[in-house]
Amino acid sequence: MVRPTMEDVAARAGVSRALVSLVMRNSPKVSDQRRAAVLLAAEELGYEPHVMARSLASRTSTVLGVMVSDLRNAFFADVVEGLDAAAQAAGFNLILNTGGRSPVRERAALRSLLSFRPAGLILLSPVVPAAAIDDAAGQCPVVLVSRTSRSADVDTVNDDGEAGSALAVDHLVRLGHRRIAHLDGGGAATAASRRRGYRQAMIGHGLEPIVIGSEHTDSAGEKAVRELLMQYSPPILPTALLAGNDFNAVGAISGLEEAGLRVPEDVSVVGYDNTSLAALRHLSLTTVDQPRTEMGRLAVEALLERVREERTEPVRHLLHPSLVVRSTTAAP
Amino acid sequence: MVRPTMEDVAARAGVSRALVSLVMRNSPKVSDQRRAAVLLAAEELGYEPHVMARSLASRTSTVLGVMVSDLRNAFFADVVEGLDAAAQAAGFNLILNTGGRSPVRERAALRSLLSFRPAGLILLSPVVPAAAIDDAAGQCPVVLVSRTSRSADVDTVNDDGEAGSALAVDHLVRLGHRRIAHLDGGGAATAASRRRGYRQAMIGHGLEPIVIGSEHTDSAGEKAVRELLMQYSPPILPTALLAGNDFNAVGAISGLEEAGLRVPEDVSVVGYDNTSLAALRHLSLTTVDQPRTEMGRLAVEALLERVREERTEPVRHLLHPSLVVRSTTAAP
DNA sequence: TCTATTGATTAGAGCGCTCTAATCTTGTAG
DNA sequence: CTACAAGATTAGAGCGCTCTAATCAATAGA
Questions:
Q1: CA atoms within a 13 Å half-sphere pointing along the CA-CB vector of B54
Q2: CATH of domain A6-49
Q3: What class is the B161-290 domain?
C-alpha cells in the first residue's frame, strides 16, 4: 500500500527530483532522452503524482466542491453529470457533498468542502441564507445553479422559468385551449418564476390564470387535481394543466385518469424539466426542457473563468428552455 | 482569498504552531486556558484546518473515491446518497467520478481517483476488467457494489439477484401464473444472477423458463414484448413477465398496451430495483426492492474496517431483496 | 537542597511535491 | 582557444500541516 514518490522515480531514472517534476507536468524544457528515461522509470514503478502534495506545493487546487441538495432528483443528477464531464475535461475533480435541503447540514457541508481549499464551489439549489453563500464566496469563487444571488462575487446559472412557462402556455393556446390551470410548485426554488411566467402568459393571451397550490411530487399532483375537480365541473373544467414539474405532472395524470378523464382527449398536461421520466414511451409527456448538462458545463466554465482571474464581473446565465411536445397535449 | 494558516492562529494566540495543531485535533493534553485562547484566535481569524496539508503530514486520508457509471440511473444515485451519509458520519468526504460504462473512461477515472491517495475506493457496478480492479486494490482498499470479485483484497456488496427473481416468480406462481417469461438484462452486471434465479425458481415450480433477450432500458422492453408476441399467440402467450429492471418493465407495459393487452388483467408485469419510477402512482409497478441506502452504508462500513486494519478477510455482503407488490400483478 | 515525576508546551524534521535561482552543458561566434 | 548565450539540469527552500522527541514548569519525595 506504500506508493512510490517522485524521489523513487528520480533515483531509478538517475536524475533529480526536480527533473521528474518537470516531466510530470510535461514541461518543454526537458531533453527527449531524459524524458523517456523518466517516463520509463515511472511506468516501471507504477508512479502517479500525488495530487494533494502537488496542490499544496503549487498553491493551486484541481478540486471543485459541489453541494447538491438531493441526488435522487433526476434534475440534479443530470446537472452533476454535466459538471463532472466539464470538470474532467478541464483536469478538475469533483468533491461531492449532499445537503439534504437542511440549512444546518448544508452549512456543515460548505465548511467541509471549503476545508479542501477547492478551486471553486458549485452549489445546486442551496437553501442556506445568502449571507452564508457570500461568506463562502469570500474564500473561493462560487457558482449557484437554480438559485439567484445579488452578490457581485457570485455567478449564477438558471433556467428562465418565465420563458419556459410561456412556451407551454403558448403551445396550449395554439392548440385551442382557453382554460389552462397551473399546479404551483410551492416552496421550491424554481416555483416562483414558473408561476410568474404562467400568469404573464395567460394575461398576455387575455385569459384568466388559475393557480392551484401543489408541490413538486407526484402525490401532490394527484391531490391538486382532486381539488381542481371539486372546484370546477366539466363544463368549466380547465382543458389543460401546466404542472410544476414532471413528477407533479405524472401525479396529475393519475388523478385525471382516476376521475375517468382521458389525457390528452379530455385534458392536456404539460410537465417541466424533461426528466428521463417524461421520455418514457409509457408516459410520453409533453414538457419543458432545461438544458441540464449545458447548465453543468456553464457552471464549470464560469467557475474556471474566476479561477483563472479572467473575469471579475458576475455572470448571470439565464438559459432558454425549449418545449418538447409528446403525447399528453392535443386540441381540446 | 488567502486564508489564515496555523502559524497565524499561533501568533495571534501567543503559542506555538504545534499547540494549535493539538487543539485542532482536540487532544486532551492541552490546558483549558490555552485551548480557549487558541479557539478564540481561530474563530477571530476564521481559521479552518487545511485538509490536504493535514493528510499529507499525517499520511492518512479522509477521502473516499467513488466511481459511478451513471448518476442518471436512480439506483446509483440512491446508493451514492447512502455512501455520502455514511461517509459524512465517519468524517470522510467523497470524491466522485463518473465512468459512463466505458472501460477507457473508467480506467482514467480510477487513475484520477487514486492520484488523491484516497483512504479507499468504492466502485459502483464498474465495467473494467477484474485485473484493473485488483490493481487498484493493491493501492488502497476497494469495495465493489453491484459487481462480484474473487480477489481476497476486494470486498463486495451485492443484492441477491437469485433470491429477488425467486421472490417475483413465487409471487406470480402463487397468483396462479404458469407461463412466466423473463426479459433478460443482457450485458448488465446484475443480469446473470437475476436470470439464474428466474430459471431455478421456474424449474423448482416445475415450469418451463422462457427467456427473451433484452436490455435495461424501456425501449428494449417494448421491443422484447413485440418479439414475444411474434413467437407466442394468446392461447400460449405468457401471462406474466419478469423484467430485467424497472425501466425495462415500463417499456414492456407500453408494448403490451400497444398490442391491446391490459396490465394486469391480461398480463402481469414485475420490475426490479424499486426505483422512484415504480412508486409513481401512475405506474404503481410491482417490483423487487434492493435496500440501496443500506448498500451504501455497508460499503462504507466495509471500507473503513479495512482502512482501520480491523479486518483482512474479504467480506461478501449479499443483501436480501424484498418484493413490493403494487398494481401490475394479479391472477391470470 | 536536589532529584524524580508528571503534565504542558515547543522545536524541528518531514510528508510529496513545485518553483526560483543557481549550476552545468553544449554549440557557436569571435 | 576563449567567451557566452541558450538550453538542460539540479539544489534547496517552502506549501500547511503532524509527530516525535526534547524542553520547561511545577509539584512531590528523599
A1: 17
A2: 1.10.260.40
A3: alpha beta
